[in-house]
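[job 4471] stage=fold_predict status=RUNNING
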Amino acid sequence: MIKHIVLWNFKDHAAGADKATNMARAKERIQALAQLVPGMVRLEVAAAEPGFACTCDFISLTEFADRAALDAYQSHPKHQPVKAFMRSVTAERHAMDYQT
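[job 4471] inference complete, writing structure tokens
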């Protein structure tokens, strides 16, 4: 199993919208990628919540059956506009892939 974790910090204003709006848009766009490729086992997204320790605004956690499924997801044509949107509205991105 391969886990792909990405954390972002959003810009206060970007793409004509405020941070909260862009975070909601990001959640919707990433969730639309669920089951995009065979071998995607799980997709979870969440925004930081008051009362919890957070150093990032937003997280995406995906699990894949194998490296080939992760590679297919990363290069899938429907994933590319989501990546571009995230680059336009975020100030920082941190990612880690690992095998369990």
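[job 4471] summary: The radius of gyration is 13 Å.
[job 4471] exit 0
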